[in-house]
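Forgive a beginner's question, but would it be possible to get any protein sequence you like and the tokens describing how it folds?
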Amino acid sequence: MAAMLKSYSSTVCFPASGFTVFRSNNATNASNKRSSNWKPPQAAIIPNLHLPMRSFEVKNRTSTEDIKCLRLITALKTPYLPDGRFDLEAYDDLVNKQIENGVEGIIVGGTTGEGQLMSWDEHIMLIGHTVNCFGSKIKVVGNTGSNSTREAIHASEQGFAVGMHAALHINPYYGKTSLDGMISHFESVISMGPTIIYNVPSRTGQDIPPHVIQTLAQSATLAGVKECVGNDRIKQYTDDGIVVWSGNDDQCHDARWGYGATGVISVTSNLVPGLMRDIMFAGKNPTLNSKLLPLMDWLFQEPNPIGLNTALAQLGVVRPVFRLPYVPLPAEKRIEFVNLVKQIGREHFVGDKDVQVLDDDDFILVGRY
């Protein structure tokens, strides 16, 4: 019996992982086998046994093709009450103004909407609220991206569960990964529903190169790319049949009419949605584009959304409340905005109140909320 046990080779199966391990107690045979057939270990991808949390009910669903045809998407501002909570009345008013002026989609909780300053509970609640109130009138794209794949998966499951029409996903930032890791990150979420990939190296510190997008384009649920690198990159994608939205307001006119972009995901359209629709729908209009360029330059002289938050407060459509670390632009820049509104025409801007220069003491800065 001892001899039998000594020479016995056992096979151990692990059904959950799909691996079969052969184990031998014969040291001599093992040594010979290692010296003749042994190969260095390679990374193995453990089979993904995670079942997607999804529904195939169609009440608020939309197809990837429906997302691909959107020309004007607004990266929407999130307004606050004095204690830092969401001001849903002001938010609803902002969304209604977008709908009234022909905007086709909105990004909820993106960089402009300060998703980075929200808890995931707040984030998903705002997506759900937007779908519930406006989902039949405008496409709701939830920013459920994260530099943590686990969080991106969980947030995307929840976002689609509450009815968002598409997801916006960014590449992992700060704790950057390799290009192969980037592809694996996106592949973990892209199958859940229509997805827009967001490339903004100035914020992430890492470009998403074309071969990554071309790999992801094999997925039927890739709606397209929000591209901030420039119009030459946009042309490269559109030549390959990949849908692209310009992520740079000051380049979007030329991107749309000269480089094949489908449209723009815009910050400026928070302020002048009707004029931005004209730029995207009415054909080449360099005169209108030139008229809006000073406003676009003003909006981005400090990191977004500082300029936008300041502008909307001075237009009287949101309370002058900032979640830190954002603070309003200085007084001289606030005066510049009032002059820009007068030059372009107050009637083109959202809201009904007269634009005014706010004092420093008018602003509320909230660090805990």
User: Anything to note?
Assistant: Residues 120-134 form the longest helix (15 residues). The longest strand covers residues 9-14. Confidence is low (pLDDT under 50) at residues 1-25, 30-35. The chain has 15 helices and twelve strands.
